[in-house]
Design brief:
Strands 4, 5, 6, 7 and 8 form a 5-stranded antiparallel β-sheet that branches. The chain has a 3-stranded mixed β-sheet with strand order 1-3-2, with no helix packed on it. The two termini are about 55 Å apart. The chain is globular. The relative contact order is 0.04. Strand 5 and strand 6 form a beta hairpin. It is built from 23 helices and 8 strands. By secondary structure, it is of the alpha+beta class. Among the domains are: about 140 residues, no CATH class; about 100 residues, no CATH class.
């Protein structure tokens, strides 16, 4: 099927322009038309075939070139002819697919799009001329790059985009539509450093696709001054063994790398953690997963580390194992440095009140790891009181349950009630739960699914052990 095209004169379009059908050297149909509704009615054959043909996603490289390098895609279906087979295309969506839609706002309005390509050693450039023909003979012309909005004027609440920024990102093969969708405000900033940021990323070993992915995921990077990015690079290089690993981290955590606040604090915190003989790999993971913990004043992080160290030693931990214990805590929960030291003290104080020995507390802390700082004594009190009542167990039995399943300290009262109720609904007894409290670590949906799965194989959990439920997916299969 030949593509239906339209080539308007590069002078002003006139409403009394006659209709002509011509052929280009490339075989495409050329139609010159006026804005008269009767004329458009005569072109209604576009309603099905050409509409469906033109509405396929198009790219500048795939658009055919007519004689003179001019191509204009036209969809001219009057509102009266619209049907389920010819849905109107919104202006923005129409532009994204390389086509033009017809809108009707009190009078017939036809939008024409003229695409001019310039092929050279530079990136392909595209000029768009949008002409609006209506019964009032309105004339307007707008020149836009291929990544610009299709509407002839930006919405009143939308800021004007920085065309230099948009063009620079486009040359780097960044998906402009993705940036517009999630971080449109970046494109409206007056001062950006697109090429400088791309150069720095390339210097660190990023290939062109990686540069595009990073800027699509975190376009705010182009707002960072080059000297600040260079300083950040030097900081991260101090904990990364090579630039390949550094680029791997940046691709996964671009927002962390481009958090360029308080360089002095970041450097001081890195040196402090290195002085504790923590591995650079752990420090790098902390910087990537919890960058704000490095922007904090050094004194705050020192207080948290001191509390962790003293807690471990007070509970009977070995001095020689402090570094290994800290590395485990930090690697398993990088946000631990953001937790106030008071949280640790309050949680441990509450657990001591429950009669736990130092050895039992050390076991709990090692199991709960950094999350113990997130526990609230009042919430734990309500949860434990409910468990003690529903299981009808003694204080010692409750302690055993917590040691066996420390995760229950995290759950809110409504969550615990829901999990117990789900087990009771399928006939599980409280004695079974007491024998296998780890079943409470699973959500009700997972428990029910596994029970039904086991039932399909003839296993009745009501008369057997719940241990089979708490296994992994692989074990269950």
């Amino acid at each position: 099927m030949s593509r239906v095209c339209l080539i308007p004169e590069w002078t002003e379009l006139c409403c009394n322009m006659p209709v002509h059908n011509m052929r280009t050297a490339g075989g495409s149909s050329i139609i010159k038309l006026c804005g008269d509704e009767d004329v458009i009615q005569r072109l209604c054959y576009l309603r099905v075939s050409a509409w469906q043909h033109l509405c396929r996603p198009l790219t500048p490289q795939r658009l055919p070139l007519a004689a003179g390098g001019v191509v204009t895609c036209l969809v001219c279906v009057p509102p009266s002819l619209w049907s389920s087979s010819t849905p109107p295309l919104p202006p923005c969506a129409a532009y994204e697919s390389g086509t033009v839609g017809v809108t009707y706002r009190g009078h017939l309005q036809l939008q024409l799009l003229s695409l001019i390509f310039y092929s050279s050693c530079r990136s392909t450039m595209l000029r768009v001329t949008t002409a609006s023909l209506s019964t009032s003979c309105q004339r307007m012309r707008l020149f836009l790059p291929p990544y610009a909005s299709a509407s002839t004027a930006p919405p009143p609440n939308r800021r004007v985009e920085n065309q230099q920024t948009v063009a620079s990102l486009y040359e780097l093969s960044v998906d402009i539509r993705k940036v517009r969708k999630f971080k449109a405000w970046v494109l409206s900033e007056g001062s950006t450093y697109v090429s400088e940021t791309a150069d720095l990323l390339r210097d660190m070993g990023a290939d062109p696709p990686a540069v595009a992915r990073i800027l699509e995921t975190h376009p705010e990077a182009v707002l960072c001054r080059p000297e600040d990015v260079a300083a950040q690079r030097d900081l991260w290089v101090s904990v990364c063994p090579n630039r390949r690993e550094l680029m791997s981290i940046i691709e996964k955590f671009p927002a962390s790398f481009f958090t360029l606040t308080n360089h002095s604090n970041q450097r001081a915190n890195i040196l402090f953690l290195q002085s504790l003989h923590l591995s650079n790999r752990i420090i790098g993971k902390l910087m990537a997963s919890a960058p704000h913990s490095f922007s904090r004043p050094l004194e705050r992080n020192k207080e948290v580390i001191h509390t962790l160290r003293e807690t471990y030693l007070d509970l009977g931990g070995d001095e020689d194992n402090v570094r290994v214990w800290l590395q485990k805590l930090l690697s398993q929960n990088p946000s631990i440095l953001l937790r106030p030291a008071e949280g640790w003290r309050d949680s441990l104080g509450f657990l001591r009140e429950q009669g736990f020995t130092t050895e039992e507390l050390l076991s709990l802390v090692s199991s709960l790891r950094a999350s113990i700082a997130e526990l609230q004594p009042e919430a734990m009190r309500h949860a434990l009181a409910y468990i003690e009542g529903v299981l009808d167990c003694s204080k010692d039995e409750l302690k055993e349950t917590m040691i066996c399943c420390p995760a229950i300290l995290h759950y809110s009262l409504p969550s615990l009630v829901g999990r117990f109720q789900g087990l009771m609904d399928v006939g599980v007894s409280m004695e079974q739960v007491k024998e296998t409290p780890n079943v409470l670590e699973l959500t009700t949906q997972i428990v029910l699914y596994r029970i039904h799965k086991l039932a399909s194989y003839g296993y009745d959990v009501r008369s057997g052990s719940l241990d089979v439920i708490i296994g992994t997916k692989k074990t269950l299969r």
